[in-house]
Amino acid sequence: MDIVSLIISLISGAVGGNIAGAAMKDKSLGVLGNSIAGIVGGGAGSWLLSAMGVLGKMGAAGGMDIGSLIANIAGSGVGGAILMLIVGLIRGGTSKSA
Q1: What's the pLDDT tens digit per position in 73-95?
Q2: Is the pTM of this model over 0.70?
Q3: Are the C-beta atoms of residues 82 and 17 closer than 8 Å to each other?
């Protein structure tokens, strides 16, 4: 994974986390919390897609495959949203029982 695809993954994850936070206000961690959870989830989602071979060769031979770019953005955004939801559920569950 090169630096460009990593930056795309982190930004897409942050956006995905914030969109999920806006959609589920009761699970939202705030803008900063949603962004942090999204960045971590986006990085993990991108890494998982790379490990499975879905992303292909982004940045190889001086060009980017548009399919790999779209898969990276989508996978990172979904990864960010999923991690934000998981953290929101854990945080919500622990605050209600305490």
Answers
A1: 888 999 999 998 899 888 876 65
A2: yes
A3: no
Mean pLDDT of 23-42: 91
The token pair at 75 is 């996978």
Q: For residue 24, what are its two tokens? A: 């589920």
Tokens matching residue 94: 């622990």
**What sections of 1-98 are H helices per DSSP?**
3-23, 30-52, 66-97
Neighbours of 82 (CB within 10 A): 20
Q: Which residues of 9-24 are buried (b: 16+ CB within 10 A; e: fewer)?
A: bbbbbbbbbbbbbeee
CA 19 from chain centre, in angstroms, equals 11
**pLDDT(46) > 80:** yes
